[in-house]
């Protein structure tokens, strides 16, 4: 079997999904090959691009080899200006590589002028004309090399910006060998299939769609019966671990599916009915020990929506031997200064915290289970322990107006020394969430695959006004502006954790 991670996603670390699937298949005696077409495709575009005319583009093309080497050198991350120059120039090379065919390609972006990943007809069109994809020359050659002897091809499709490329590759495979079985899974596919009344529009292209974790379903499709008690550590050894755009391996690891809190209003996970499936803590610790010894990472990225308190306590007592970071909920554990110090000693360099709002009323209406006083103590404790914070804020929810948003601004300003990075997002209403009907569905993104809907804000604070507040008021406060400038361009939190390791 051939498992493919298609363009485009950030190429700072290997894809965890196909590494987990590969380990399971190999354990059952199924031969398996892995292709990170995302990383390989971006490197191919960077090497091929020559369409430079302006001064910036000429400089970027000339320096691409040096800039790639810079992103793989830890010293680059010690000088923000040097880092920003390297990623900006590499992004420029990708951008000019496909501009003439109406495609925007970047280190974290893929957009087509006319085709949308939100329309199934456009995805089918991408499959029908794969030669119009900017990665076509790459995957035409690469797939010809890898498909010999393969009976089934699986795609891991997690992000919207991967969809058009994934379907172009699927269409190309169908032309090369119509008899191959094609399986399509991943986070985005799961979201599509969880929609009420879902009807598969890709029956002529894809043999099987997989919702949720794919191990058991893949084994069944390949004629094997999964043993539920079997727990297998992910296998990254078949991936080009030295080629990623980081100064060493960042090891991604998922200790759970879903979210253990799972009560927040407007949460896509809850809207899709995704339940919480944790890996046993002892297995997580065992996996991490094996993987650290095997791959020698410079950083562990825990992928969970929120690392469980049980796992946090286990990591504090059993350090994985490598710096690590991930998402955590603001809770009583982190309100304990000694526990935060223990996390730091275990290697925790950064925690991503979904605060969402600095207003207690907004948090209560969102059922976040967060107390502002508790959040303040947590931030101060993490600051004292030397753990950096990547704080996520969400503006424009139905329970927020500009008055509450200004309270968020006040909270951030008063805690600016404890907040190192900020993610500022506009709220999107899940199309099939429990709350959508209450606020009135309206057209938002055109397309039969859209997962969100516009809504009537009860306080008449529309998206345009929210965006204006963020840009013209929130980000212009000197304390906030200083935090925003810390964020690594394009790679954001993925490389922010690296900065925390060296500072």
Question: How would you sum up this structure, described in words?
Answer:
- The protein is 43% helix and 15% strand.
- By secondary structure, the chain is α/β, with parallel strands linked by helices.
- It folds into two domains: 2-221, no CATH class; 250-502, Alpha-Beta Horseshoe (pyruvate-formate lyase- activating enzyme).
- The strands form five sheets. A six-stranded parallel β-sheet has the order 8-11-12-13-14-15, sandwiched between helices. A five-stranded parallel β-sheet has the order 2-1-5-6-7.
- Helix 2 packs across helix 5 (80-98), helix 4 (64-71) crosses helix 5 and helix 14 packs across helix 16.
- It is globular.
- The two termini are 43 Å apart.
Give the key terms.
about 500 residues; pyruvate-formate lyase- activating enzyme; 2 domains; 5-stranded parallel β-sheet; about 45% helix; about 15% strand
SSE inventory with pairings:
Elements: E1 2-5, H1 16-27, E2 33-36, H2 37-48, H3 55-62, H4 64-71, H5 80-98, E3 103-106, E4 109-112, H6 120-128, H7 136-146, E5 152-156, H8 160-176, E6 181-185, H9 187-193, E7 208-209, H10 215-221, E8 250-253, E9 256-257, H11 268-271, E10 277-278, H12 281-295, E11 299-302, H13 309-317, E12 324-328, H14 337-346, E13 348-356, H15 360-365, H16 372-385, E14 388-395, H17 402-414, E15 421-426, E16 429-430, H18 436-439, E17 441-442, E18 452-455, H19 463-474, H20 478-484, H21 493-502
Parallel strand pairs: 1-2, 1-5, 5-6, 6-7, 8-11, 11-12, 12-13, 13-14, 14-15
Antiparallel strand pairs: 3-4, 9-10, 16-18, 17-18
Helix pairs in contact: 2-5, 3-5, 4-5, 6-8, 7-8, 12-13, 13-14, 14-16
């Amino acid at each position: 079997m051939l498992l493919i991670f298609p363009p485009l996603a950030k190429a700072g670390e290997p894809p965890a999904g196909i590494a987990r699937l590969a380990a399971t298949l190999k354990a059952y005696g199924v031969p398996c090959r892995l292709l990170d077409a995302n990383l390989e495709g971006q490197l191919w575009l960077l090497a091929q691009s020559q369409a430079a005319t302006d001064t910036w583009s000429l400089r970027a093309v000339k320096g691409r080899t040096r800039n790639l080497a810079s992103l793989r050198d830890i010293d680059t991350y010690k000088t923000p200006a040097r880092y920003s120059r390297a990623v900006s120039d590499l992004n420029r090379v990708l951008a000019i590589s496909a501009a003439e065919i109406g495609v925007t390609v970047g280190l974290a972006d893929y957009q087509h002028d006319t085709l949308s990943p939100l329309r199934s007809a456009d995805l089918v069109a991408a499959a029908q004309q794969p030669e119009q994809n900017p990665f076509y020359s790459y995957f035409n050659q690469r797939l010809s090399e890898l498909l010999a002897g393969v009976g089934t091809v699986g795609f891991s499709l997690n992000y919207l910006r991967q969809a058009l490329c994934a379907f172009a590759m699927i269409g190309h495979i169908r032309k090369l060998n119509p008899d191959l079985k094609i399986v399509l899974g991943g986070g985005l596919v799961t979201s599509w299939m969880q929609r009420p009344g879902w009807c598969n529009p890709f029956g002529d292209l894809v043999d099987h769609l997989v919702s949720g974790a794919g191990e058991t379903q893949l084994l069944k499709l390949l004629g094997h019966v999964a043993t539920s008690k079997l727990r297998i550590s992910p296998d990254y050894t078949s991936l080009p671990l030295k080629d990623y755009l980081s100064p060493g391996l960042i090891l991604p690891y998922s200790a759970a599916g879903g979210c253990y809190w799972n009560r927040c209003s407007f949460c896509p996970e809850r809207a899709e009915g995704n339940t919480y499936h944790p890996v046993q803590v002892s297995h997580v610790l065992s996996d991490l020990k094996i993987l650290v010894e095997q791959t020698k990472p410079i950083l562990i990225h825990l992928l969970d929506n929120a690392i469980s308190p049980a796992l946090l306590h286990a990591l504090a007592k059993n350090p994985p031997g490598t710096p690590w970071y991930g998402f955590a909920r603001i809770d009583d554990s982190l309100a304990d200064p000694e526990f935060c110090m223990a996390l730091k000693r275990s290697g925790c360099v950064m925690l991503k915290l979904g605060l969402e709002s600095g207003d207690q009323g907004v948090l209560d209406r969102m059922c976040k289970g967060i107390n502002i006083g508790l959040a303040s103590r947590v931030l101060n404790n993490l600051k004292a322990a030397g753990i950096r914070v990547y704080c996520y804020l969400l503006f424009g929810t139905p329970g927020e107006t500009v008055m509450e948003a200004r309270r968020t601004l006040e909270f951030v300003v008063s805690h600016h020394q404890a907040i190192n990075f900020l993610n500022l997002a506009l709220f999107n209403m899940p199309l099939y969430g429990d709350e959508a009907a209450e606020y009135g569905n309206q057209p938002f993104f055109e397309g039969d695959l859209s997962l969100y809907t516009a809504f009537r804000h009860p306080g008449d604070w529309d998206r345009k006004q929210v965006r204006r507040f963020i840009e013209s008021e929130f980000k212009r406060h000197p304390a906030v502006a200083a935090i925003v400038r810390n964020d690594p361009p394009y790679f954001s939190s993925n490389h922010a954790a690296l900065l925390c390791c060296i500072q």
